[in-house]
Design a protein that fits this description.
By secondary structure, the chain is of the alpha+beta class. The protein is 63% helix and 16% strand. The protein has helices at residues 4-29, 77-80, 85-116, 126-152, 156-164, 179-218, 221-225; strands at residues 34-41, 46-53, 57-64, 73-76, 169-177. A five-stranded antiparallel beta sheet has the order 4-3-2-1-5. It is rod-shaped, with a radius of gyration of 26 Å. The relative contact order is 0.19.
Length: 226
């Protein structure tokens, strides 16, 4: 059976790992990744389109200076995009976020297992936890980089707007990243906290072992023989 210290520390790391899982699920489920305001002109009017979307769903609102305004539109992100570079990068963004969710789930299961037992396999112990949390943080960071690159360099929002309103001519765009996007930083923070807790546990365990050896080192040799 694990010691009380180990149980408490690994339960703490279990809570941070579980927190990362919950946050990633929220990121996947919400639509507030980015809000883009795109100015445009067409044959009869000019104005702007504001689209807010996440990885799967979004909503667009058209505002005209004059002319007949279209109704608000709800759209499916992947269904709206054509088979192009923005769609490929968007799929890669989703894949990396799902991988981060999977590795965070493995981390939470491993920490819970360590809090109630003493696994001998390396992958189930602290080394495995370093691996899972490192992979989770890396995958979620790549998610962040890919999404920003797709929005800024591949003009993801402009591509969506062009598909939703085929007749308009784009003249500019401004992007604001929402809370769903910035929650990625919280996931990385939770991964770091999990690793830090495990490091503190290993240091405390090493110190305890060193203290247990000291009585043997300073014991008389005759006493050791007997």
């Amino acid at each position: 059976m694990p010691t009380t210290q180990k149980t408490l520390m690994f339960l703490g790391s279990f809570l941070t790992s579980l927190g990362a899982v919950v946050v990633i699920c929220s990121i996947l489920a919400t639509q507030a990744w980015i809000t883009s305001t795109i100015t445009f002109t067409d044959s009869i009017s000019n104005g702007s389109v504001t689209i807010t979307y996440g990885l799967f769903r979004g909503r667009s609102v058209q505002e005209l200076d004059h002319g007949l305004q279209e109704l608000d539109k709800n759209f499916d992100v992947l269904g709206t995009l054509s088979n192009s570079s923005p769609k490929s990068l968007h799929i890669a963004t989703v894949v990396f976020l799902v991988l981060s969710l999977f590795t965070s789930l493995l981390s939470s299961m491993s920490t819970l297992h360590n809090s109630i037992s003493n696994p001998y396999q390396t992958i189930l112990g602290p080394v495995g936890l370093y691996v899972w949390n490192g992979l989770s943080a890396t995958c979620v960071f790549l998610t962040m980089v890919l999404f920003v690159g797709n929005a800024e360099s591949n003009h993801l929002s402009e591509e969506l707007s062009q598909r939703l309103y085929p007749d308009m001519v784009l003249s500019g765009a401004a992007h604001t990243y929402g809370y769903s996007f910035w929650l990625i930083l919280l996931v990385i923070l939770l991964n770091i906290v999990t690793v830090v807790i495990i490091i503190f546990y290993q240091k405390a365990r090493y110190k305890q072992k060193q203290e247990q050896r000291k009585p043997m080192e300073y014991a008389p040799r005759d006493g050791i023989l007997f």
